[in-house]
Amino acid sequence: xxxxxxxxxxxxxxxxxxxxxxxxxxxxxxxxxxxxxxxxxxxxxxxxxxxxxxxxxxxxxxxxxxxxxxxxxxxxxxxxxxxxxxxxxxxxxxxxxxxxxxxxxxxxxxxxxxxxxxxxxxxxxxxxxxxxxxxxxxxxxxxxxxxxxxxxxxxxxxxxxxxxxxxxxxxxxxxxxxxxxxxxxxxxxxxxxxxxxxxxxxxxxxxxxxxxxxxxxxxxxxxxxxxxxxxxxxxxxxxxxxxxxxxxxxxxxxxxxxxxxxxxxxxxxxxxxxxxxxxxxxxxxxxxxxxxxxxxxxxxxxxxxxxxxxxxxxxxxxxxxxxxxxxxxxxxxxxxxxxxxxxxxxxxxxxxxxxxxxxxxxxxxxxxxxxxxxxxxxxxxxxxxxxxxxxxxxxxxxxxxxxxxxxxxxxxxxxxxxxxxxxxxxxxxxxxxxxxxxxxxxxxxxxxxxxxxxxxxxxxxxxxxxx
Length: 467
Ligand SMILES: Cc1ncc(COP(=O)(O)O)c(C=O)c1O
Fold this sequence. Notes:
seven-stranded mixed sheet; 16 helices; 15% strand; binds pyridoxal-5'-phosphate
């Protein structure tokens, strides 16, 4: 007989083979998940969160070293965000931003514009990151059309970058395994090298990757290029930071060819890099910022496209409009969650905390460099990666089978069993990624360091035994 969700929650579902497990295996379609791997294994069911920690259905505690999915920035268990959402439901549960406005969306738009650098002042709300990227790409195209340049439809992103999964956003995503199954994609997606300099020749010009964007624009024909979309620090591949001057060079290139610059800050805004926006950290002025995740610390789904005065201008005159929208864009309950979340950021100075403590997090990871498979440590703010290699001196990486065995066969399970949630990923070369809640402090860094040392040492021993 089918179990109702409430029966499952009431406790009958806890433990091995419980009703909640059974219902998950039978009915829940998990995202980006090999569901067959749970046929004979337990689905990890997280039932509660508190600060930097979450708890599974058996009551076991885990350090959430990934802020769930780079998003619970203010940490778990912030009941005041829930209280703000409940108050909003009592006042106005929903109204739309299609031709109408409501107080929370207006207040939030004003507040975001106040935080955003320069003339990034017009906020278009979405329900998440992919919708933000999708909207930004469409906005760029219609912007150029308004300026009599309808031939500009291409978008240049970087290799291995992740910009979301909807068909438009997927055009920008530079991960072949995510693109290939859905081809033909929307036309116009082009890719340039990323900033991962770990294996670059020592004498390569530090601004090579920036200049490759110009090469790409020239190759395509500037009159066909609409936008360049890049993350301040690229997530997929493992926290690729920009070279000094990279962003200034990219800005110059975009200006030279009339191409719009989108800073995709779905991860890198809201304190992740120690600033409201990642572009502030690296001192550049994008035409558009895309954001989501940490805006509400993920207590409610919400994203936003923040456009400069220049980009918004054509849509403020005459009969012109951005013919685009989502029912839930600017949802009042999500907007109330975002405002309460930003109150926490202000009160606890979470951006300042990240700036003060990122060196300590970094040192914790640097201290692991004596483990033979630790090849590189990189990142910024509370957003770091460790690249794993077969041989530290030659930087030899793992082949596909070895990577599968190392990451999925051992590391993911071992880290979780040892109470640390982080990401073991091989969309580029194999990496472990860490992105803890922005309230994490010395105690959590020590725990991260100890667990990684234990598990990576065992992994290194296994790698050595295989050779
Ligand atoms: C840079 C970037 N852009 C877009 C997205 C897509 O966001 P969502 O999963 O909310 O659709 C992500 C998700 O991680 C991301 O990291």
